[in-house]
Amino acid sequence: MTVNFALLGAGRIGRVHAKAVGSNPDAKLVAVADAFPAAAQSFAAQYGAEVRTIDEIEAARDIHAVIICTPTDTHADLIERFARAGKAIFCEKPVDLDIARVKACIDVVKETDAKLMVGFNRRFDPHFMAVKQAIDDGRIGKVEMITITSRDPGPPPLDYISRSGGIFRDMTIHDFDMARFLLDGEAIASVSAHAAVLVDPAIGAAGDYDSVTVILETVTGRQVVISNSRRATYGYDQRIEVHGSLGSASAENQRPISIEVATAEGYTRPPLHDFFMTRYIEAYANEIAGFIAAIESGALISPSGEDGMLALQLADAALESVRTGRRIILA
Amino acid sequence: MTVNFALLGAGRIGRVHAKAVGSNPDAKLVAVADAFPAAAQSFAAQYGAEVRTIDEIEAARDIHAVIICTPTDTHADLIERFARAGKAIFCEKPVDLDIARVKACIDVVKETDAKLMVGFNRRFDPHFMAVKQAIDDGRIGKVEMITITSRDPGPPPLDYISRSGGIFRDMTIHDFDMARFLLDGEAIASVSAHAAVLVDPAIGAAGDYDSVTVILETVTGRQVVISNSRRATYGYDQRIEVHGSLGSASAENQRPISIEVATAEGYTRPPLHDFFMTRYIEAYANEIAGFIAAIESGALISPSGEDGMLALQLADAALESVRTGRRIILA
Amino acid sequence: MTVNFALLGAGRIGRVHAKAVGSNPDAKLVAVADAFPAAAQSFAAQYGAEVRTIDEIEAARDIHAVIICTPTDTHADLIERFARAGKAIFCEKPVDLDIARVKACIDVVKETDAKLMVGFNRRFDPHFMAVKQAIDDGRIGKVEMITITSRDPGPPPLDYISRSGGIFRDMTIHDFDMARFLLDGEAIASVSAHAAVLVDPAIGAAGDYDSVTVILETVTGRQVVISNSRRATYGYDQRIEVHGSLGSASAENQRPISIEVATAEGYTRPPLHDFFMTRYIEAYANEIAGFIAAIESGALISPSGEDGMLALQLADAALESVRTGRRIILA
Amino acid sequence: MTVNFALLGAGRIGRVHAKAVGSNPDAKLVAVADAFPAAAQSFAAQYGAEVRTIDEIEAARDIHAVIICTPTDTHADLIERFARAGKAIFCEKPVDLDIARVKACIDVVKETDAKLMVGFNRRFDPHFMAVKQAIDDGRIGKVEMITITSRDPGPPPLDYISRSGGIFRDMTIHDFDMARFLLDGEAIASVSAHAAVLVDPAIGAAGDYDSVTVILETVTGRQVVISNSRRATYGYDQRIEVHGSLGSASAENQRPISIEVATAEGYTRPPLHDFFMTRYIEAYANEIAGFIAAIESGALISPSGEDGMLALQLADAALESVRTGRRIILA
Is there a cis peptide before residue B94, judged by omega within 30 degrees of 0? Predict the structure, then answer.
């Protein structure tokens, strides 16, 4: 069976997903919709797809699945529409910045028994997957302490920051999901977060933070540290380390060029990837491939809408912790 | 301008090049030829190309360039035909296993002023390119000593070995070209080679070697060591180290998964790539992109047919060195 | 001038310091005292020193400095005695487990204008010193976030745990001092600690924890994460990473043997040092050398008694944070 | 039993060995001899030894072993004298620069049944020992190809070069011995060497080379590559890699400080050790400890005088290979 896709939103990340669909022998990009018809037209031409409206896609018999890459504030509505229309749905994170809206949306997904995957692409990074596999294989024993380091090469534009929901909902949310993934779903008991404006005062003026540290503690006392900064001069710093009773597993940083030059000044290797799209190029491809495979096999979809909701709850708790100076108890 | 391509030979490496052409916005795959029509048909369908005969491609007005991925013994004839037909030509290495045949072919290329690129893909590997760039940037001063390590995960099938021309012409030839690339064309003065059968006696029975060490010395006394083995249990071992007057530049091995697991037994990282096609996936894409760019810009093509010939001369000299137990003087 | 030393306490760590004194051309070990005369005698013989009582050492005219390696509960008393006797004092950490006792002791040191160095040996580790130097040289800009990982190969004997003052005062205290060292003394505003018993329930039964995470926040919002475990199967895990506005500096783990073995299973390096005395062998030597140099030059001694007190305050705050579930505000 | 030592030659390397003897509980430095009495006196004072003449040492009943660190041209004579005097002998390499003289000396050692260790200190480097152990443990299967890289930070003084016997007898000789050590004594069938003056023309004017590559081939076809340069701006470059049927074992370079600083320019680690005495500090200590242990246990001493002779034969063959442009057949 070929899974026929419609792409909603013909922007930067839409291009990544369109390519993943286009190169998958089990899938076909049939339709593209965008508020800017020219953008949609460009994609459609490249992949032999049609430009259609969202209404047309909703009503189409020849479309099995949609990929939602539209602005965040449209996600929840679109998920609900396409859940009711019986389409499988891949939606970029977040479902919504408001937890109540997310819950309502997830309820619709459950009622309609819709297939929904939320775009936590890092679960599909081959290196992070290998860390998870090392855990699952028992190589490091029982997981006890996790350290997740996630630093951007530089801050996003200020206008993005102001509508991002803040660093915890925009950036740390990936790490919250990663923590949950690595902990195999064990409940988080408390969230303790520290945040500061160390990179750019304008970020503070916009009501956000740029440097945060979060500790999650599970109900059995396992500890997760997340360290985020909006600036890392040396590139896109993305590391995971899991310490267990029998050992430790870690995913190292990735660089596009791995040479080493030795001189009297020392040994130098080039900086890391400087952009999340090149760093996670394999993750994005694996993600859509996983979505297609799950549609075909009928397997449970992961990360699910509920995973999206639970990560957002942690983000909200972290923000509350910073604002109140208190540890937030969740369970 | 769009460069229209015909692919000759719809096998494994043909698929790699077809993909590179297909995903290049400046190029289009127009025709595919193969002795097995079904193979050609499969490629043609995927890329919206037509199945044509070689005669048709030779005569076609809508085709600017050909990619030759047919068996080795057809390369030289095809290069000559398409040189005379005025097509730009990309040909997988080697041009031929016989140096006289190669020279005759290169003569035709010169007479017809044809554009010919020979598929020494490693020149396009981003890591090796970065080593070359470090040299060109003067970071390590004057190049003095080069070490090239190249080991396959395991030997090829015996029937391949018997028609490969032997390890020097089949495997080491890449390293000879790499040496020439890194030396910026300085003439090789002598070749001294040692060869043994250490991996599999059947390789020796087939008249070939599986473990070789070669020293090239340039006219100014610079030294290159090439170390080859047909077996490396830990994966596809491909390293370059260049030692110069101001320092050293090296390209490290590549692995698909870069995690590290620490236990009481130590720190373990996964093996390297186990296949040249995954190891050099970027090199293959860069190679065809470079070919297309050179066609469009009219730039000199590199590696050229002459590069192919000179590498083969080194391979022949290495074999003669092993057979005679003598250093072969070239310049 | 030669600095004449007396060693108080001829145990394991005393041996390390005696050797440092013995091999320093500016110092001489003159006397050794121990509750067990045989132990003192063995040291004395090896270094050409005399066995003396503490009273004799206190009264001796030929002794300029003492090294206190006796049990923790004798430290404060001995510091006070030798401060009053006008000797320079090196004392193993901690000064005392009780902060009030430490303060009283430090007061005596101040009154008597005594020279006191507290044995935070890690400040003298060449790798950690190089990280500090990179900061001081401005290579990474303004320090923003620090991550200190410190894990023991295995827990100490249970009877040691019961008199250790608990993990924060015994183990984390080194990391508190390291944080202060790397922050160049900027005041800590808050301490937030999480602790669990994940390694051995017997440690919990003894009233202690074995796995802790601490966040320190400075008055300007800089963040320090300390991660401790009493068990690391792969060796003595001691890492520091400092993230700044211009880059990052990190000290890697040390292993006694640095080979790599590559097989079909992957690339394996041996485990880390399995004992703090081999891991920090250079730090111990540098520490005593620094003490001798400071005595000779009259320079300020660092780490000082006050450094010892401030690290203990952080340990006490961490323990209070765990017990109350609250962030402890210090400034 | 305590082994009583006399040290002949109170220079730089003598100091290293005196320290090794002095800190070994099973050994005692009893006498020191040197052409410059002041030098001998300084050592004697430090270790509680006496200054004696060589004649006195030869006749002494209280001396069991001598360490010969005098100039090279005295080695063979001293070995013979002390062999006849019944002392165990540790002699710095080389026994002599002339192979006939070495053979004669070794004959005397055999006749007198003397214990003689030749100072190939690298056999005692813990990292190289671990590579050997990995081989002996069967972890990499049958050894097939060995690569030894050995580069000095900079050339020695010209007057040293002129009396060194040349780079093969002075520098490469360590690598010849290492090759023999790793090959477990398998006979070398041929030596093929290339040499050039790339670092400093004055070295060439002195009749020597500064950049050499040597291939050794064993009687079963195993291949060893040795790469030497008299200059490596990045430090003392000392690496070994052994490729076998089941995998590969390699010893990495050593650096005194192992931090990494990441900035926009990349990731930089400090240079390597810049001096052989710090790089091989553990090897020198292990070497003397091994000598003492062999004396006490009566075990066979390794590396023996014959090892010294065989390494020199390889050096002579390499030089002949360079001079004749031919491969030198040894077996």
Answer: yes
Whether residue B262 sits in one domain with residue B133? yes
pLDDT band at A1 (very low <50, low <70, confident <90, very high): confident
B283: number of CA atoms within 13 Å, CB side? 18
Question: Which residue(s) pair with D217 in the sheet?
Answer: D190, D223
β-bridge pairing D223-229 and D143-151: parallel
pLDDT tens digits for range D14-60:
999 999 998 888 999 999 999 998 989 988 888 889 999 999 999 99
CATH of residue C222's domain is 3.30.360.10
Work out the average pLDDT over B132-156.
98
Pick from D199, D246, D326: CB nearest B233: D246
Q: Is C233 on the interface with A (CB under 8 A)?
A: yes
pLDDT of residue C169 exceeding 90, the answer is yes
| Residue B211 CB-density burial (10 A; 0-12 exposed, 13-18 middle, 19+ buried) | buried
* Min Cα separation A144/chain C (Å): 7
ipTM: 0.95
CA dihedral sign of residues A161, A162, A165, A168: positive
CA-closest candidate to residue C93, choices C77, C69, C110: C69
Residue C320 in any domain: the answer is yes
Select the residue of A232, A263, A270 nearest D266 (Cβ to Cβ): A270
Q: How far is A327 from chain C (nearest CA, A)?
A: 6
Same structural domain for residues A46 and A109?
yes
Query: Are A320 and A187 found together in one domain?
Result: yes
D211 forms bridges with which residues in the sheet?
D196, D229
Q: Is residue A305 part of a domain?
A: no
Q: pLDDT tier at C145 (50, 70, 90 boundaries)? A: very high
Average pLDDT over residues C36-60: 92
Asked if D262 has any chain A CB less than 8 Å from its own CB, the reply is yes
> D264-294: per-residue pLDDT in tens?
999 999 999 999 999 999 999 999 999 999 9
Q: Which of C243, C132, C208, C113 shows the shortest CA–CA distance to C177?
A: C132
Domain that holds residue D209: 123-284+310-329
Contact between residue A194 and residue C225 where contact means Cβ atoms under 8 Å apart:
no
CB pairs under 8 A between A and C: 114
**Contact criterion met (CB < 8 Å) for C251 and D259:** yes
User: How does residue C47 score in pLDDT terms, banded at 50, 70 and 90?
Assistant: confident
3-state class of A60 per DSSP? coil
How many structural domains are present in chain B? 2
CATH number, position A51: 3.40.50.720
Is the pLDDT at B129 greater than 80? The verdict is yes
Domain boundary among D114, D145, D168: D114
Instruction: Give the pLDDT score at B291.
Output: 97
Q: What span, in angstroms and rounded, lies between the C-alpha atoms of C105 and C102?
A: 5
Residue B213 and residue B140 in one domain: yes
The answer to whether residues A127 and A110 belong to one domain is no
**Residue D218 class from Cβ within 10 Å (0-12 exposed, 13-18 middle, 19+ buried)?**
buried
Indicate if C103 and C151 belong to the same structural domain. no
**Beta bridge mates, A237:** A151
Q: Indicate whether C302 belongs to any domain.
A: no
b/e burial code for range A277-290 (CB count within 10 A of at least 16 → b): eebbbbbbbbbbbb
Helices (H) and strands (E) counted in chain A, each on its own, are 13, 15
Q: Verify that A244 and A137 share a domain, yes or no.
A: yes
Residues of B in contact with A122 (CB under 8 A): none
In a domain, C298, yes or no: no
Q: Strand, helix or coil at A210? A: coil
Same domain, residue pair A236 and A153 = yes
User: Which of C51, C83, C114 finishes a domain?
Assistant: C114
CA distance B213 to chain D (A): 7
Cis peptide before A94 (omega within 30 of 0): yes
